[in-house]
Structures are given as structure tokens and as C-alpha cells.
Design goal:
Blueprint: E1 2-8, H1 12-23, E2 29-32, E3 48-49, H2 56-76, E4 87-91, H3 94-97, H4 100-109, E5 114-116, H5 119-125, E6 136-140, E7 144-145, H6 148-161, E8 165-167, E9 172-178, E10 181-187, E11 196-205, H7 211-216, E12 225-234, E13 244-247, E14 252-256, E15 262-266, H8 280-293, E16 302-312, E17 319-323, E18 326-333, H9 338-355
Parallel strand pairs: 1-2, 1-11, 2-8, 4-13, 11-18
Antiparallel strand pairs: 3-7, 4-6, 5-6, 9-10, 10-11, 12-15, 12-16, 13-14, 14-15, 17-18
Helix pairs in contact: 1-6, 1-9, 2-9
This protein binds flavin-adenine dinucleotide (FAD).
Flavin-adenine dinucleotide (FAD) is lined by residues 8-14, 32-35, 39-42, 44-48, 171-172, 206-210, 214, 229-231, 265, 308, 310, 335-340.
Amino acid sequence: MRAAIVVIGGGIQGLSVAYNLAALGERDVIVLDAGYFQGGASGRNGTLIRGGFMSNEWTGLFALANQRWIELSRRLGRNVMFSARGYLLLAEKPATAANFDAALATHRAHSVRSHRATQADLAKLAPALDRSRVLDAIYFRDGGVAPHHAAMDAYHRACTAAGVRIRYGSPVTQILTRGARVVGVVGDGDGDGDGFEIEADAVVLAAGAYGNAVAKLAGVELPGFPMRIEAMVLEPTRAVVRPAIAFIDSLCYMAQTARGEIVGGAEVPEQPTESLACDLPVMTATARVYRDMLPCLAKLRILRHWAGMLHATPDFGPLIGAHPSFANLWVTGGWSYGFACAPAAGELLAKAILKGVLDPRIVPFALDRFAQNRPVREGGIVLAARV
Ligand SMILES: Cc1cc2nc3c(=O)[nH]c(=O)nc-3n(C[C@H](O)[C@H](O)[C@H](O)COP(=O)(O)OP(=O)(O)OC[C@H]3O[C@@H](n4cnc5c(N)ncnc54)[C@H](O)[C@@H]3O)c2cc1C
């Protein structure tokens, strides 16, 4: 078998790059996924989306992503159910609040519609919030949430309609190389036990938490390690918060769904692991933040609790671009906010692959930045350092 481009991984990153390749005219694309539709982090996330962070690099990329979410249903021809209910970034510590003026200036430079939320704004946006604990707040008007099932379904259908072939239950077990190029992949199954070998002009590695394991199939490595993160849902309650919220200092995020449930989680330092088992520390940490910041949630029961896997890089930033060892092995990985950023990452990576144009917004996230001692410092993410 042959394809111009093989994409390894059918999560939202793999589907977005495949869709964008097809939209740019390259329809000879195969997406191969080891598991089942939505089985990776793309079917297990908090669904929060925002365009602004603290750094210029993250904001540049996510500003484009947030813009794309606004028009994504029209573009894909399916309803991704994006709800622009807004997004609040909260500082509880003076050191965090001290960076908010600079962050707002960065947002302005990238045309992200953000402003400082006053105590009166907070009372309207999030009546349940204990405002006495909030030192400063930034509100993103265009942030919000999109249920992952709707977004994944829309990407899947748009890919299929454009002629992209997508196979789940098809793990790639080898990446074939010749000199400084990759030339194809070998894999197992399709559920029927038959293996496959596909020649390709280029391969895109979009394997989420398994990015490094898949890179090793070509004899190379990606910086970072697999990391578990967890989320939980509380019983439905009356409308207590409208926007999504990130409590930067408590390493916690949350949103209220249309059904009234509270979805979110607090991060605790984890050992590298590949387990999807949930445990008490995250539940306890999340419950503590809710109790302190949104006391009315303390009485609600936990309905569901689950884990998903990410590939955490040393700066928690994504890896986007060609692998330094193979000019035609492209990577979109290392994602911690890869649901929100998928529309932008897929678009810019597809342009890089087909047109050889590296958009300045992806350049800072090059795979060799750690070797070059150029990590991207971002202070507005909710992730705990490894134990
Ligand atoms: C609890 C939780 C909450 C989160 N909250 C948010 C949030 O609110 N906002 C946000 O933006 N992000 C959030 N994220 C992160 C987000 O979900 C991920 O960054 C994003 O889904 C990554 O997409 P992906 O396509 O790279 O990975 P995945 O969706 O994990 O897809 C990778 C795919 O690669 C496949 N694969 C692996 N190995 C192979 C192989 N050998 N051959 C073929 N296929 C292979 C896997 O089967 C998998 O389907 C959260 C994640 C979790 C777990």
C-alpha cells in the first residue's frame, strides 16, 4: 500500500493535521490509530479553550486556535458545539498577579480580546466564587468550551468527506527509514490480525502520550515523558459559574456544563506512568480547591473521575515541526493543551509539510529547543511539575 502522507495517531491532533492537509489539496492521507476513536486524551479532557496565556509564544499560537474554534463548525460543516462562554484566569498570589499587566499587553499584541476582571465583574461571571481569595483576574471573552465528542466527530467526518482514510485498531509497530528520510510504516491488525506496510513520502507523528514510544520506532527520541492527568465531574447544580476558570496558583481548572455539572481537576505532581487508574490525591486536591474557592460546591458528590495520558515536555510546551534527524518525519506532540490548540497546530503543520513554510508561531516549539537551550517559559498553565 502507498500514501503520500501517513499520520500516526487519530486523536484531535492527528485528525486536525489530516483535515488541513486535505483542505490544502493533499487527499492521499492515511491516519492510523492503535486504539479506538476518542480512546486517547482527546476523548478524556476538560474541553477548555482560551486564546491567551502569559508568554508571547503560547499566546501567538493559541490566539489563532481560539479564532479558529469560533469558525470551526462552519469550516468543518458540522457543529463542534463551541460555546464562547468566556474564560477567567485567576491569580491568588502576588507573584502571579504581578505578571498580569504584561500578560494583558501580550494579549493585545496578538489581538486576543482580554481584559482585567473587576470584583464586580467576578460577582456577575462567577457568583459562587470566594472573591476575597482572588488578587487579580483576566477575562477572555472568546474563550469557552467545546465537548470533545462533537469536535472529534466533526473532524472525523470532515476528514472522511475529503477522502482521508482513517483506520483505528491499527498500531504502527515500525517506521521504515532510508538514510535521513522516513519511507513508510509497518503495523498490526485492523482488528483482523492482518499486518500492513505502507510506503509514504512523509510521516506525521501525532501519538499523544506515546509520542516517544513511536519516535523510537524510527530509532529517535522526543524530549519528555508520559504523564497521567485526571479530571472529575460533580453532581449538577444551579448555574454558579458562566466562564471556564483556571486557578493558576492552585493548579486547578473547571467549567460548568450545560447540564449543570462541574467538570475539572487539580494537578498534583506525578511520577511518569502509563496508568489510567484514578487515585485519591487528585480527588482530594480538587475538592480542596473547590471548597476554598467555590464553597457552595463542597456539598456536591463526585459523579465520575477518570484519567488520561499526556506527553509532558520539559517546559510543558508542544513539539511542532520536523524531527531534527528526519526532514520528512513531522511531529505534533508534547501537548498539554492540545485540545484547545488543535485547529491552529493542524493548520500550521499542514502548511509546513506541503508548502515548506514554517509559520513564526510554531518556530518557538521546534523539537530541538531543549538541545539548543531555548525552552519556552509559560506561567499561565495549570500543570504540576513531576515528583
Ligand atoms: C483529564 C484531562 C484534561 C484535559 N483538559 C484539557 C483542556 O481542558 N483543554 C485542552 O486544550 N487540553 C486538555 N487536555 C489535554 C488534551 O486532551 C491533549 O493535549 C490532546 O487531546 C492531545 O491530542 P493528541 O491527538 O495529541 O493525543 P491523543 O488524543 O492521546 O491521541 C493520540 C493517539 O495516538 C494513538 N497511538 C499511540 N501509539 C500509536 C501507535 N503505535 N500507532 C498508531 N496510533 C498510536 C493513540 O491510540 C491515540 O488515539 C486534557 C487532558 C486530560 C487527560
